[in-house]
Amino acid sequence: MSPHPPRNLALGLVLGILAGFGAAVVKHLLDTKLRTKEDVEGMTNAVVLGGIPYDDDASKHPLIIQADPHAGRAEAFRSLRTNLQFVDATEHPRVIVVTSSIAGEGKSTTTANLALAMAESGANVCVVEGDLRRPRLLAYLGLEGSVGLTDVLIGRYELDDVLQPFGAHSLTVLGAGATPPNPSELLGSTAMRDVLDELRRRFDFVLIDGAPVLPVTDSTVLTRLTDGAIVVAGSGVVTKDQFEHALETFQTVNGVVLGVVLNRVPRQNRGAYYDYRYEYRPEGAVSSRRTKTGRRRKNEDDATRPRRDLVGS
Questions:
Q1: What pLDDT, on the 0 to 100 scale, is given for residue 306?
Q2: Which residue intervals are annotated with compositional bias (Basic and acidic residues) in the record (predicted)?
């Protein structure tokens, strides 16, 4: 039988395409990670409050609102701030826990940037380091906190003794303080309720950076003392099962989930929520990030530059 090169070539191309398509289908079916807005909406009735784009350099400038105010990622946090105002027009949630299913999804940087976005709009904001086991918030903000919330809860200090102002806007920080042996008990105590009541009286908004939901019960305990929780979901980080389990945990304690923030969204993934995010800088404005050569641009403020050695909290 004589060979038929054109036919064989065509057959090879068809088989190659089918093999590639089959591999893509199998990969999709085996992918257990939560990645897109559609993934979130298929698992919960909670509103998707916003999507925060992935940034390779996020660990170098975690407070993007401050480091590069005109960046697309900074604008995403401002959109989150705006969307949060419409979550519950009747109840107006003001004391809010920000948490995640597992560690590494970006709850602490989300809390810090959302607080900064609220403060720059004129709101009087207090941000609380409520993850008593692995506090990260003060380090991101470049603050020291040998005393804080736990010291107030056990009666060692008054609230005014441990509150710290931050930056030029109306933002106040309450650090975690010393790590206690019983975080869940302290966070669910009458003393904690009293602290939150006092903060509610003093501030327009109180944001609490809570511990991840699945490893410990701290954030679900806090949810019962607050107006609800924002759940940060790291795209490509958390699995769908983990996310679903976290939502079930809130249901078990009758906790209110105000909404979900999809974090680390790939910029090129149009189905993942980032399809309309872009930078819109005023004429003449430049980025305050470092250039590719590692040199910092002239607009960066050394006095308020945060710690850059922490990643993914």
A1: 44
A2: 298-313
Of 263, 226, 275, 228, nearest to 247 (Cα)?
228
Give tens-digit pLDDT for 146-201: 899 999 999 999 999 999 999 878 999 999 999 999 999 999 999 999 999 999 99
Decide if pLDDT at 214 tops 70: yes
For residue 68, the one-letter residue type is D
* 25 vs 224, residue with greater confidence: 224
Sign of CA dihedral 260, 266, 271, 277: positive
Rg, Å, the chain Cα set: 22
Please give the full DSSP string across the chain, using - where no structure is assigned: ----HHHHHHHHHHHHHHHHHHHHHHHHHH--B--SHHHHHTT-SS-EEEEEE--TTTTT-S-HHHH-TTSHHHHHHHHHHHHHTTS-TTT---EEEEEESSTTSSHHHHHHHHHHHHHHTT--EEEEE--SSS--HHHHHT---SS-HHHHHTTSS-HHHHEEEETTTTEEEE---SPPS-HHHHHTSHHHHHHHHHHHHH-SEEEEEPPPTTT-SHHHHHHTTSSEEEEEEETTTSBHHHHHHHHHHHHHTT--EEEEEEEEE-TT-GGGTGGG----PPTT----SB-TTSPBPTT--GGGPPP-S----
State the pLDDT confidence band at 270, using cuts at 50, 70 and 90.
Answer: very low
**Global pTM value:** 0.80
Tokens representing residue 72 in the block = 């697309």
Taken in order of first residue, the domains within the chain and their CATH numbers are 34-304 (3.40.50.300)
Q: In this predicted structure, what is the pLDDT of residue 167?
A: 87
Mapping DSSP onto H, E and C, the string for 37-85 reads: HHHHHCCCCCCEEEEEECCCCCCCCCCHHHHCCCCHHHHHHHHHHHHHC
